[in-house]
Specification:
single chain, 40% helix, 3 helices, 3-stranded antiparallel β-sheet, alpha+beta, 88 residues
């Protein structure tokens, strides 16, 4: 650091008080990779521990539950939880 008149001049290392070795980029990369790995493990264990009864139950976009019957192709899903049926 040096002064020229009333101006103070500093070089890049003094201004940032650090070096540019990519440490932040490495920490962000490995953190993202670790978070993705944890989420993948959570998803995989959830899939492997799902029971047969849970596989047959689905949820509509409005939150109402429907049960799908895998053996009966072409039939409408059964309604659960006292849902109302819209007239056709």
């Amino acid at each position: 650091m040096h002064t020229e008149g009333e101006e103070v001049h500093v070089d890049e290392v003094e201004a940032t008080a650090a070096t540019k070795d990519g440490t932040s980029r490495n920490v962000l990369f490995w953190g993202l990779l670790l978070a993705g790995g944890i989420l993948a493990i959570m998803w995989a264990t959830g899939v492997m521990t799902q029971s047969e009864a849970e596989e047959d139950i689905s949820v509509n976009s409005d939150g109402s539950r429907i049960e799908t019957n895998q053996s009966s192709v072409g039939e409408a899903p059964a309604l659960l939880d006292n849902e109302e049926v819209a007239p056709e």
